[in-house]
Amino acid sequence: MQVTSPSSFRFIRELIPVGLIADSSCEFETINTVNEHISTQLHKLVQTPFFRYYKLNLYKQCPFWPNNYLCNRKDCNVEVMDEAEVPEELKNKLSAIDFSPAGFGLRPFRKCEFTDKDFCVLDDENSQDGVYVNLIRNPERFTGYTGPPAHKIWKAIYEENCFAPIRLISDGADHVSPMTNALVDTAKEEDETCLEKRVFYRLMSGLHASISVHICDEYYNQTTSRWESNFECFHERVGKHADRIENIYFNYAILLRALNKMSIYLQGYDYCGGNPEEDTTIKETIHQILQHSKSSPPTFDEKALFNDAASMVLKEEFKNHFRNVTRIMDCVGCEKCRLWGKIQTTGLGTALKVLFSYDDYKFGARANPNLLQRSEIVALFNTFNRFSESISSIQRFRRMYFEKA
Description:
mainly alpha
């Protein structure tokens, strides 16, 4: 464990967020309490085959700029599965999408299908091609992917927050213009920015900050050749920026509200993975998670957004910008970073779809079982688990260094 300076110790004592999370309906303390109750169950859930096996295209052509950088570091590589390892019952349910193997010519970009209700570009589950990934064998942590290539990705993502007139990217000729440094505190006057635009920015900032927490919490120490927590990394990237911590909590509040809205749907979903005992465990674990989450006060009021005729145009812009963010993930040069970027943008996009594309009754007892794809549900829970672990890590960093101070 790396040590830190006295000034950082003072920071740990002072920055304990309390009170209302901006633009949400709940307080920091509510999220901390809920997470204490459900983090263990979430971790248990994503270990099951149904939630740890994912099928995706790691080498889809970047639609925004040519000559994309590829990370050659060992830690950037994703360990793919032998198809024989995947239970037969899951093979027809896994998200299946076109795959171009590394080292071979990339196929021309082909527009993916999405409906007007989708906030992200979803992959075709009926495709016969794809690569299977065991998410447990490919943890999200420090890979060494940094510098200009990584900054370029975040610049492109934050540019989508500008809400200038846009068109959805549909071919490889389009390009995202450069921005200023990505992970910086904005100087926006929030009272002059509409709620919808603030929500979009908080989602992007919270995702960025959460990923940074994971990188710092599982940081490779070249001196000891061990994976360990790096407080200086956490302090510089996230800890000393109150807004970044708040936006992690804000994302958690959004995801929690989405799960609660669709709780009946989730409890009735078919999680058949080929092992009746495991299937029962999944049902019981999800029931426990939802029982605890629903007992908390409301965390977000989606009805406060896009609630009049004028804001319907903004809603379409919001969708298109978020779809572009999901496509930017195909430009990430690190395989492992791209894997988790695609999963988490899909997870957040699924939460937005649940909150803003369907009324509550759509997730009732008679809901269409195919309302959401399996890949969306798997991405949603894995994303929720990632933010759950971020909040647990923040608490652990604080406790650890408070005790050492």
